[in-house]
Amino acid sequence: MSNFVNGQWRPATSGETRTNVNPGDLSDIVGEFAESGAADVTAAVDAAHAAWPAWRELGPIKRAAVLTKAQAVLAARGDEVAAAITREQGKRLGEARGEVDRALAILEFTAGEARRLNGVTTPAEEARTIALTFRKPIGVVGLVTPWNFPLAIPMWKVAPALLAGCTAVLKPSPFTPLTAQLLVEVFAEAGTPDGVLNLIQGDREAGEALVADERVAGISFTGSLAVGRAIHVGGANRLLRTQLELGGKNALIVLDDADLDKAVAAIIHGAFGQSGQRCSATSRVVVDVRVKEELLARLHDRVSAMRVGIGTDPAADIGPVVNQERLDACLAAVEGAVAVGAKVVCGGERAVEGLPEGYYVTPTVLRDVPWDSEIAQEEVFGPVLSVVDCDGFDDAMRISNSVKYGMSGTIFTQNPARMFEALDQFEAGMLHVNRPGVGAYAHLPHMGSKMSQYGAPECSPQVWDFYTEWRSACITY
Ligand SMILES: NC(=O)C1=CN([C@@H]2O[C@H](COP(=O)(O)OP(=O)(O)OC[C@H]3O[C@@H](n4cnc5c(N)ncnc54)[C@H](OP(=O)(O)O)[C@@H]3O)[C@@H](O)[C@H]2O)C=CC1
Ligand SMILES: O=C(O)CCC(=O)C(=O)O
User: Fold this and answer.
1) What's the CATH architecture for 3-246+452-476?
2) What is the distance between the alpha carbons of residues 111 and 50, in angstroms, rounded to a whole number?
3) Is 216 in the pocket of ligand 1 (CB under 6 A)?
4) From the DSSP assignment, how many helices (H) and strands (E) are in the chain?
5) 444 CA distance to ligand 2 centroid (A)?
6) If one looks up domain 250-441 in CATH, what number appears?
7) Who has the most CB within 10 Å: 187, 303, 385, 446?
8) Which atom belonging to ligand 2 lies closest to the Cα atom of 245?
9) What amino acid positions are annotated as catalytic residues?
10) 173-218, pLDDT tens digit by residue?
11) Which DSSP letter does residue 431 get?
12) Mean per-residue pLDDT of the chain
């Protein structure tokens, strides 16, 4: 299980490997994967750099043909890829299948954009002159991706990078190397020329080497605020272009006129889907005190009945978290919350009974969480939901916007004026009304506000502002 450089699968130069295990069953060894260092990154950037001129010259419409073929290959291998996602990431098979569908939609949307990579023609100041703008690919890009969406996130970076005419080095999370390998296999099978898409498996050392290589024109990163900041600062001297999609501490507001049945269903989906490990996850419910007890009673009944299980178990409602670090972080967050006065409504423990040895956390609801406590301000990235009280709409918006992050914002109300006021006031990038606070479309910008995002949005036509740069031209004839 290797790196992919210039069209060849090869081990790390050092020969070192890292063992990848199934987080839902630690006795299941997924495989040994290359543990790359700076020399491997240099070789991958060499290949991407050499492949760039021919790929750039091909033009977007011919490049789109590779994406369309990749869509067909991925569709044919969808079950295999979904099984790999569940095995190494832990999410339930249905969720993994949904991720494959999302990746297919990204390929479909991005290939279609080939005929819409437009510039403009503008009036000129002189006679017999045309002024126009057009886009050019920025060059070799480094794509550093996390483990929570091991297929969809790399796909929404690789697909636009390649369509734009960039060549790429993908450095996936060391916790999900198999899915990244399958993604690269799909592109290879689709006829991507050698060197256009390269894969380097590894950790921080490989990521840092990518950032440091002066031939890399841009880094697109999804992950924690701390690492996003380190990448941005690490590249600042050479004015490295970065696109950073970082954390979230997302609020779902429940006003006193909300449909509580729909709100509870949305909260469960947003807080516990993918075991809460998504940047847009609902991690705070901000509930009006007038409906708080009723909402908590319903949440208690529904959440305590959820069945924790391995992702391949069709009866499981929630799978494991991805690794020991996440497990420890969830349990520590609960302990910290209780220490500042929050109460556990349900969950809050490691789940072991009837389960293989793995990283299982019971889905957790905490009530009476102070709005300014650490757990209400910092990302947990796991199935731990904080319920915070509010008194009316203005208080709900104040609390929702009190965090440094701004990924998603959601409101449940039947009052249309409140819906629009909330859309106006949320300091967050992705907004939802009377529906779960997670989920996105390939054609809508995927991004946050404040410290959740830096640089151009992902997905959508706005993504071209990362992978391309503008030229303006004046032609006198
Ligand atoms: N916004 C989001 O969608 C996501 C947010 N997260 C957040 O991040 C936390 C930690 O998860 P983790 O997967 O470790 O994510 P990180 O953001 O910490 O790391 C992501 C990747 O970047 C690498 N890396 C670390 N330092 C650098 C650097 N200076 N330059 C380049 N690459 C670097 C990491 O290597 P190494 O593993 O060796 O550190 C890893 O492969 C989660 O708990 C969650 O809060 C995680 C996933 C997604
Ligand atoms: O929640 C989603 O749909 C995408 C999540 C995401 O981009 C992330 O967690 O990094």
Assistant:
1) 3-Layer(aba) Sandwich (3.40)
2) 24
3) no
4) 15, 22
5) 13
6) 3.40.309.10
7) 385
8) 10
9) 245
10) 999 999 999 999 999 999 999 999 999 999 999 999 999 999 999 9
11) E
12) 97
